[in-house]
Amino acid sequence: MSQTDDLEPILDTVRKVCAAYPGPYWRACDRDRAYPTAFVEAMTRSGLLSVLIPEAYGGSGLSLTVAAAILEEVHASGCNAAALHAQMYTMGTLLRHGSPEQKAEYLPKIASGDLRLQAFGVTEPTAGTDTTSISTRAERRGDVYVVNGQKVWTSRAEHSDLMILLARTTPKDQVKKKTDGLSVFLVDTRAAAGAGMTIKPIRTMFNHATAEIFFDNLEIPASALIGDEGKGFRYILDGMNAERILIASECIGDGRWFIERATAYAKDRRVFDRPIGQNQGVQFPIARAYAEVRAAKLMTREAARLYDTGASCAEEANIAKLLASEASWRAADTCLQTHGGFGFAEDYDVERKFRETRLYQVAPISTNLILSYVAEHVLGLPRSY
Ligand SMILES: Cc1cc2nc3c(=O)[nH]c(=O)nc-3n(C[C@H](O)[C@H](O)[C@H](O)COP(=O)(O)OP(=O)(O)OC[C@H]3O[C@@H](n4cnc5c(N)ncnc54)[C@H](O)[C@@H]3O)c2cc1C
Question: Which of ligand 1's atoms lies nearest the C-alpha of 121?
C-alpha cells in the first residue's frame, strides 16, 4: 500500500525508530506485562509524539492526518502504539479548550517529553458505555475541587504524569440535559497518587497497562478545570472523534502487518510440493483482507481530512473505526490460519498481534454503539436505547 509522497520522510523516521524494537522486544514486554518504556522514550525523543502540539509550544504543529499516518506505520512495523497514543487523542481537548496558562504550563513539557499525558479517565464500572451516567463527582469547595468515585480501564494511568478526567460537577437529576453538568480536569497524577487517588492495575489477555482508579476526597486545584464547568461532555466528544480516527489508523497498520506476514509465509511454506499460497483457499482470504484494509483506509483518511478542516466528522470517524477494526481482525484471523500451527507459536508474533488487535472492536467504543450511532444519527432511525 503506497503512502502519499509528502508523508514519506516522516514515515521513514517512524520505520527507523520502530526497527530498533523488533518482535523479541515486544515478546519480552508481553511475557512480563511490562510497559514499553524504551520504545515510548524513543518515539518521544524523535518528536513523533508531539506532532499535534503547535510549534509555539515546542511541537511541530502538524495535522491529525499526519498523526494518523504515524500510528498506522508504528503498527505496520509490528510495534504497538497503545502505550502512547493517548497523548495524541487527548491533545485536542487541551488545545481547543485549555486556557492559555494551562497550555503554556504543560504543552512545552509534554512536547519535550518531561511530562507524559497518556491517561484518559472516562469509563466507569457501573455506567459502562452510558457515559452521561458516570457517578464520579467533583465538588467545588473554595479553591479546590474534591473528587470522589471510581474509574475503570484507565489505561497508562501508572505511567502518565497527567490525566484528562471526566467527572460530574452537577448531579444528573439537577441538569436539563443529561450531557450537561459534566466537566473535564487535567489532573496531576504525581501529586494525586497517595493523596486521595489509588491506582489498581488490571491484568488483561494482552500487554496493556490499564487500571482501576479510586478517588477518595482527592483535592485538585480549581485551575485544573479545562474550559467551562459543566460543558466537558462536548469537549470529550471532540477528542473521541480524533481517538476513533487514530485507532482506525492503528488497525489499518495491524492489517498491513498481518497481510504482509500471511503473504510472505504463504509464498514460502511448501506442502504437497507447492507453496500453500498457490491454493485459492489460502490466497483468497488474504486478497479479501487486503481489499478490506484498503477500503477502511480510504474512509479513515477522509475522516482525518474532515477533522483537519474543522468540519463535522462524527459519521466518518465512527465508520472508519468500525471498518478498520473489523478489517484488521479478519486480517489477523487470516494470518493465523495461513500460518497453521505456527500461528500459535510465540516466536512468530502472530498470536500476540492477534490478541492485541481484537481490542479495537470493543474499545474505545464497541461496534454495536457505532452501528446505533449510524442508525440513529445518520439514517434517522428511532433511538434503540
Ligand atoms: C484494554 C482496555 C483499555 C481501555 N482503555 C480505556 C481508557 O484508557 N479510558 C477509558 O475511559 N476507557 C477505556 N476502556 C474502556 C472502553 O472504552 C470500554 O470497555 C468500552 O467503551 C465498552 O464499555 P464497557 O466495557 O463498559 O461495555 P458495556 O457498556 O458494558 O457494553 C457491553 C457490551 O454490550 C453492548 N451494548 C451495551 N449497550 C448496548 C446498546 N444499547 N445496544 C447494543 N449493544 C449494547 C456493547 O456493545 C458491548 O459489546 C478500555 C477498555 C479496555 C478493555
Answer: 11
